[in-house]
Each structure stands twice: as C-alpha cells, then as structure tokens.
Amino acid sequence: MLTYAIINTTDKDKVNFEEVIQEPSTVRYSLDETQFVIKYETEPSFITDGSVVPDAILNHDLCLDLMATSDWSQDII
After folding, report:
1. What tens digit of pLDDT does each residue of 1-15 get?
2. Is residue 38 part of a domain?
3. Looking at the DSSP assignment, which residues form a beta bridge with residue 71?
4. SS (H, E, C) the chain
5. Which residues contact 14 (CB under 8 A, 6 or more apart)?
6. pTM
7. Total Cβ atoms within 10 A of residue 37
8. Could you give the number of structural domains in the chain?
9. Which domain holds residue 15?
10. CA 26, CA 77: separation in Å to the nearest integer?
11. What is d(CA 73, CA 10) in angstroms, rounded to the nearest whole number?
C-alpha cells in the first residue's frame, strides 16, 4: 500500500528521490508551490531520521481529497 506525504518545498533538496516512487520533475505541487506530494511504500530514511518532517502523511483516499481542494486544484470553467 502506498503512503503519501505532504512536504514543504523548502525541504525538497533534503528528499532522496531514490527512496520514493516519483522523480523530482514529476511531483505535484500545491497551487502556491509551497508544498508538494511524495509517495512511497516504505518510509524513507529522511522522514524516519527527522531530516524532513511532513506536514501530513495520508493514505490514497485522503490524498485524493486533499488534491481536490482549492489549494491544490483550480476550477475549470
């Protein structure tokens, strides 16, 4: 099962992308670009050791709910 973590953009350089499922160029950002999402199966060492403290850790359903909010998605007219 995948786990999703919301990370502050200021911590992006601390994320070891070899430990997560996506590449730096494919992460999804909040509309204001202050946060992004990573996903993983096993908790990455940079979270375990406290180098990066996620704003939230979510399951798939909760992540989808968050992505549908106005902070993460624009309304299409």
Report:
1. 999 999 999 999 999
2. yes
3. none
4. CCEEEEEEHHHHHHCCHHHCCCCHHHCEECCCCCEEEEEECCCCHHHHCCCCCCCEEECHHHHHHHHCCCCCCCCCC
5. 46, 51, 52
6. 0.92
7. 21
8. 1
9. 3-67
10. 25
11. 21
Tell whether 77 is covered by a domain.
Answer: no
Going by C-alpha positions, the residue among 49, 54, 44, 50 that lies closest to residue 16 is: 44
Report residue 52 as tokens.
């990066």
For 31, residues 6+ apart whose C-beta sits below 8 A from its C-beta are 70, 71, 72, 73, 74
Instruction: With beta carbons less than 8 A apart as the criterion, state whether 74 and 22 touch.
Output: no
Query: Does some domain include residue 56?
Result: yes
Report whether 44 contacts 51 (CB < 8 A): no
Instruction: Convert the pLDDT of each residue in 19-77 to its tens digit.
Output: 999 999 999 999 999 999 999 999 999 999 999 999 999 999 999 999 999 999 987 66
Q: Establish if 76 belongs to a structural domain.
A: no
